[in-house]
Fold Zinc finger BED domain-containing protein 5.
Amino acid sequence: MFQDDVFEELVQYLTSMRASFEKYFPEEQNTKMKLNSWIHNPFLPNLQKPESMSNEIYESLLEMSSDTSMESWFKTTPLNDFWCRIRDEDPMLGKMALNILLPFPTTYLCETGFSTYAATKTKYRNRLDAEPDTAETSAVFYQT
């Protein structure tokens, strides 16, 4: 009897958790990730052309994917750094990749700045005491 109640409670909890995951990670996002797999590894064999990509950009992607020096550099650098370098060499391809990797750069920069600001407003801020430093500095100025 008790085990049945626990089991039912567990099933209900896991069902609600799954619904929550589906809310935050919808299936269409997984499909979008598969369509943009060229960004995560442009050196995969048999790269398929995404619908949103022009033929010119696709040709640039194919040229880049056949370059062995680029492939070795891709394996040793972070993804964002790699695409920033590609943006310097092939602006259209790099821009397309970076727009997909970082769709809202201003939001990211704003949140990063706010986090830095919030870190200075902690309870530890109250422990900062600049008065002894300014007293020493002002004493040096008055002596000279």
